[in-house]
Specification:
By secondary structure, the protein is mainly α. The longest helix has 29 residues. The two termini are 23 Å apart. Bound molecules: benzoyl coenzyme A (BYC). Benzoyl coenzyme A (BYC) binds next to helix 2, helix 5 and helix 8.
Amino acid sequence: MYTQGLLHAKEDDRAAPEPAGALARFQARIDAEEKIEPNDWMPAAYRHTLIRMISQHAHSEIVGMLPEGNWITRAPSLRRKAALIAKVQDEGGHGLYLYAAAETLGVSREELVEQLLAGKAKYSSIFNYPTLTWADIGAIGWLVDGAAIMNQIPLCRCSYGPYARAMIRICKEESFHQRQGFEIMLTLARGTDEQKAMAQDALERWWWPSLMMFGPSDAQSQHSDASLRWKIKRFSNDELRQKFVDATVPQGHFLGLTFPDPDLRYDAASGHWLFGAIDWAEFRNVLAGNGPCNRQRLEQRRKAHEDGEWVRAAALAYAEKRRARAAA
Ligand code: BYC
């Protein structure tokens, strides 16, 4: 519904020449920290970068509901169950705001969902790993939501208005998610030996995939230069990864847990925690569709989409009935 009037963006117009002087004026607005709004002129490549990023982000929220949804029926108490249901529901809401933000750029939600279900769209690598124990729900909140916040707080200052505004609310909710995850880890870490071992095992399995969430190293990142110039991104992938490591390692030590990285050490000269080499072959493999859960995640999304067909049909019929009644 947000795409009306913006349908020109549907063709791939990146090769078309930009109007004379428009590019310089656009960059001057960006440099002056003005927000770009849906009906403003923007270079085709800027529009396409945003559609790519916002849609990947929306898909990540929607697929991200699956690994945690898997534990709703097995949460260890009513309080934990209520918090987990609310968190998963928040993620569905984030997906909706983000699809709506993408629609302001001239692409429809139906089209984006079709791309996801056809296996043509990317979503965050992290959601292709399994949730084997209850401690994984703690580790996801603490590490995955923690990494997401580190990446997403700067997106509240993104140059594209609708994305920046959507991110403000999303970040507030993500920070609650991060705290509930840390609290689960704290409870387990202070629990029985078995519970502590469960927390340690979850940290070992989620640590490296969480570092991969920030994307390839700066040397390998194809899109960072343009996105930084356009102030879509405010920090590079490696800068954000380092901020995350610096914030998270002391939290892990507070929990009394050990990071699965023999090279992890504090460097007093730079004030940073230095970490070992990331296994980029594993990252590429997950992106290529061969992670532990890629196939299962897509199958579950396709089934959920088919099961929801009657809801979409009923909502459309209801809207049509209201429209007809209003017109009568
Ligand atoms: N997984 O040139 P680069 C969440 C792709 S959290 C999969 O550096 P860019 C949540 C990248 O798309 C996660 N693909 O790209 C948390 C590109 O491929 P294409 C969602 C990845 O855009 C908790 C290629 O690799 N957050 O939602 O400058 C609970 C080269 O990368 C990944 C967002 O999406 C990855 N980890 O930087 C529930 C935030 N990393 O498109 C939900 C917004 C890279 O050329 N997005 N790729 O085929 C961003 O900040 C940036 O897009 C990224 C990548 C930092 C992810």
